[in-house]
């Protein structure tokens, strides 16, 4: 009898932790493990703002999936674009655009999330995100290019528009992005003698009334003070009404000449979730405490794609889409998969938040480990210590620590690599949000597939 086929979709924190545990705890031949991901690395997403600012190199936060000595997982280079839970088939678009059907006995949906957008005129065509490694590299090149072009221009209006930068989203990603990139431009402008540093202006806006409310009032205000001391204009209760290639219109009526709009206003579950036709909670798959998808045999989901009940909080709460929950859910789900294969009982996922860390660059940070409020250097030590310890391999830890030390000693560099320099890239280009199939298309693709048990 053929061993059961375990198909894991997504190589984020949740998917990789699940696969690693399966490789360690399943005996050879006990199950076939397949991982679907467009890239053969796990991205350490919380450090992307430091990649965008040049503090870290891209490969520092891209941890290879093939370094494990226990590696026996088959990796399919592509993305899942539909699931037929009745036929037990996942439809995959490879990086060559070939569409294939992948049968499974157990399916783990760890497809993560994409940048959440709204129906704002011009947003999808003119905004850039901070959700992928390519986006971080692109944003860095784009910001430095604006300094280069402003320095070369004789047109004062063009200079003004190129030296205004807008970040939308007052959560962790947006706050860290604005803080890190502002430090980059502040340090870079010293090498542009024709540019007046006073012309460079960063704006951070959010429709919410508070900055990072999860931190609490004291630390939220502390972060706000740090940003304003750096001359970052923070506007709360404000969003974007229209995004153009050379100007941005705010909902309070202001029109800002601007050619850099970075959109980090939250995340939404992967569009793959919608292809299952299952019940959702705020767009995430509604699953049991064991992370099983009700009504779908052999299907599990976790991480950003799933609304996993937060038993530690109770009262119907679901776990927030954070890295620490995703990693721990991956381990518990792997144990539940092994229990399913061995016909043993499953266990619930229970975990309390360890705290929150926000790295604002340099010596600035705010952190709340285990409920203890910190700011400044102690908070920075906790923030970087947490991120460093969470990196999966010693190679990644060495690269990150070396980059941090080099940046502390030698300062920033301002090299523009020319990444997609001739092609304006949109949110769709980076996150492939328009490639998913409808339920009817999925049925067409899976109709001819014969699943052998």
From TrEMBL:
<feature type="domain" description="FAD/NAD(P)-binding">
    <location>
        <begin position="5"/>
        <end position="330"/>
    </location>
</feature>
<keyword id="KW-0520">NAD</keyword>
<dbReference type="GO" id="GO:0016491">
    <property type="term" value="F:oxidoreductase activity"/>
</dbReference>
<keyword id="KW-0274">FAD</keyword>
<dbReference type="InterPro" id="IPR036188">
    <property type="entry name" value="FAD/NAD-bd_sf"/>
</dbReference>
<keyword id="KW-0560">Oxidoreductase</keyword>
<dbReference type="InterPro" id="IPR045024">
    <property type="entry name" value="NDH-2"/>
</dbReference>
<protein>
    <submittedName>
        <fullName>NAD(P)/FAD-dependent oxidoreductase</fullName>
        <ecNumber>1.6.5.-</ecNumber>
    </submittedName>
</protein>
<keyword id="KW-0285">Flavoprotein</keyword>
<dbReference type="Pfam" id="PF07992">
    <property type="entry name" value="Pyr_redox_2"/>
</dbReference>
<dbReference type="InterPro" id="IPR023753">
    <property type="entry name" value="FAD/NAD-binding_dom"/>
</dbReference>
<comment type="similarity">
    <text>Belongs to the NADH dehydrogenase family.</text>
</comment>
